Amino acid sequence: MTRQKHLKTLVRARMARTGEAYTTALRHVTALAPATPPAGVVPGYPGFGGGRHHDSTLLTHVLAAAGITAAHDGAPLDEPMVAGLAGGIGFMYFSFAYSGRLPTMTIVPQIHPRPFVLGALERAGIAHRVAETTSAAKAARELDAVLDAGRAPLVTLDRGALPHQVWADRVPGSDPYDVVVAGRRGDVVLVDDERLDPVELSADVLASARAAHRKSRHRLVVVEHPGGPVDLGPAVRAAVAVTVHDLTEDVVPGNFAGNFGLRGLAKWVDALGDRRSRTGWTRTFDSGPAFGYALRRLYDCLTSDHASPGAMRALYAEFLTAAAGVLDAPAAREAAVLYDRAATLWTRIADTAVSGSLAPYRGLVERRLELLLGGGGTAELADLAREAESLTAGLEVSADDRQAELDALAEVAAQVLPLEREACTLLARVAAG
């Protein structure tokens, strides 16, 4: 049995046992997948890929390699704890309409725009170093020196410049994305990025991808070795306080502040149910292609792009369950229950987005994940990306059918908002101590 077929068998078995959606089950299965680091990987690097949330998974691997543990039990920090220390959840919603182009939207359900990886490191008091430069040559020398020292750095680059990350409508230079450079063999670098084996890239391809996202200035983050125990109590409470702040207070100045946090969530819920104004989804996404593109973005935003399945809420609920024990805080456990319920609703929203006119998209996403995790070729991935673009470009959906699908989404979204507000109130109690 090939690796991809074996992986699919494991995923289907978990789906039958748990009732999870395919993509959720897939991420759980790969999180448990054992890995033996191949030649060229820096000492102590624990494995590749897996996990449910991209940045949290990468940082979990880096911290394990550095020997970072929790002071209270001596165990490595797991993915939910790392995600929570980073601030975990948030909400950002924007819709865009430019002349001559399809309207679009984006949702970010993780904490944003606050730095995710650096936030976790700083709140936990983990020694680290950040290097930035406008010089590609200096950036390459810095990377070589870090690898020579046996460290695995996180580097920021343009996601669309990575051959294996091709996907529908990805705009070059617009998507900052972190990967771990976990080793090298000659002129080939070994990158930790979704696959269960290292992604092998030439040093030139990696350098081009780093240079392609100019705002990141070839950013490189190194966790200092050897690491030691982390006192999680103060770090966890500080992280929850940050989450509460960003859900309830301004995180950006000016008119856009209302697009973030619980206000941003309320704005999105209103837009879904708004049939009349220009900002409502009925009028904004008023053609088959525009509607299909919005639903595709909605699904991706709630499951994988700056998210984990369930709009990050399920992963955050696991963090809160652990936090309840660390802090002896019953309110954290109560909040975890509410966020678990919210995750179920968010999953329903994502599933609804790809159960009507856009139903074929789910299969394309599943196939893409299988190819990524199973080491599929870039040509196959590019074919899938073109198929996804064609699906929405040629989508024909009547106005009545579009409205029926929007009504179904709005009904579930309206249930999410009060649940999220109640959960945030409990988080405030945890933060207050």
TrEMBL record:
Residues 206-355 form the DUF4872 domain. Residues 70-193 form the Butirosin biosynthesis protein H N-terminal domain. InterPro entries: BtrH_N, DUF4872. This is Butirosin biosynthesis protein H, N-terminal. It comes from Geodermatophilus aquaeductus.
